[in-house]
């Protein structure tokens, strides 16, 4: 029997385990990606491990998140990152070059390769026929050091695309349709592979849009074939020699089968405050709009900006509406300038911001309280925009442009114009903007620059044999890492200063958590009770590290999102799930939970008895591999590395 693209990629990089669903497998990683909100910790971790130079084929560090320089913290950290990349042999992309995912796709992505990134939207590189996975920074540091990446073998979910996109419908509507059908947990434990005749109708950048938001489904990653469309993309980027064909065999099968007839799609929109809250645009048409925002890693291509420019060309946006233009890369911005599409955006009343993540991560462009913001970004978790009580909708560039012109949510098919056509120019390429790694001997002479905001990661103790601690916080379903530890201009400048950034932990959920956790820390720590899909969203390991710093010892949830589940034991937090979900309702804030004979218990069984208030016992379970159990016993991955138990 033939193999699908996912199976070929995994088979080519498998170093341990078998390709059996649910079994832990080890994968050789060819490339790594870090960005400045997560990369500072990765560089500190590489330094702590005594790495001379990275062992990957390609590693790249991007500065795209923390671009607002209101004091010394962000620029100091950018200098730290630049010096660290010079020391460790890593490509460096400075502020202004753009968002990591499209820039990596343009300059470094390569079909048939594996990519591990400390950003959950690393999966966007699946558009090139790569196996690209988001993970916590510690795992990326380990991969950069030449160690395998471990993940449980997912199911392969084959999505057959047929038909062609109608006018006013674009790639964003394909992924919104999957979210409409399956919600934010639909891809959990799965790799989504797109195939079929409809794939040929999608450019490489269209595929990027779809692959990027596979993260919003909770998928391990998304995969497209490497075909003539990918070849055309790489040729235009002057990297034609990097292309290799990679397609599904004719007799390949999938664990799950689904079909989307793109010809039947209509403009879709995700209502506040979840990417899975998707409805047709016509159902919410007429709602007033304060802001429309185009850009981000979820709609990063030249077409995604140019189509808006052509829609608003010669027109003026509605009174009271802010059209925010957030170029995804310097290259895309240059192309918009030379084709005059940037002129059309600005002439219509649009506001130009620098190339980067910007408002997507709450770094500027926050909407007014109680006003609707339509955005082409991937996420609309509560407060992610930077406004606490925000009302953010996710949509395509076409829907954002229509709202900018009318001042209200509008089905773009109702605009009084023909659907514009967009011609893609030959891209403007300047390879000198991406710093190349230094030769080894030169790199060894580099001194890593550390500003006053950088604090080393503290030592954490090993897993004790008994824990008797209170529930410090109880939360419901779909708590995101943005709610555990927010991004944005207030918080992210402290990404390299754990004591300071921990002060923001869970502030969107319970403002008293930090003070309470600090008090409980002196008494042995605390536990957290979670609902379903606990820790969805961003890969930021701070969402595990900061609570651990505040004394978190274990989490019991109905289920835990993949990346956060992997991050927790990396920092010595035991991730448990209820055997019986109804037990979630039996535990309340302040209850005292007791775990005994813990070190032996997690080695002998996946079941753990949890005594509640000395009266009732409930059953929890863990899904840790033998390797993860060893890490957990040592109190985290850093301790495990220091002990010298890392093997290939």
TrEMBL record:
One annotated GO biological process: tricarboxylic acid cycle
This protein's record includes keyword Iron-sulfur: yes
Domain Aconitase A/isopropylmalate dehydratase small subunit swivel: 510-580
Any single GO CC term annotated in Swiss-Prot or TrEMBL for this entry: cytosol
Manganese found in the keyword field: no
Catalytic reaction equation(s): citrate = D-threo-isocitrate
A Pfam family reported for this protein in Swiss-Prot or TrEMBL: Aconitase_C
Protein name: aconitate hydratase
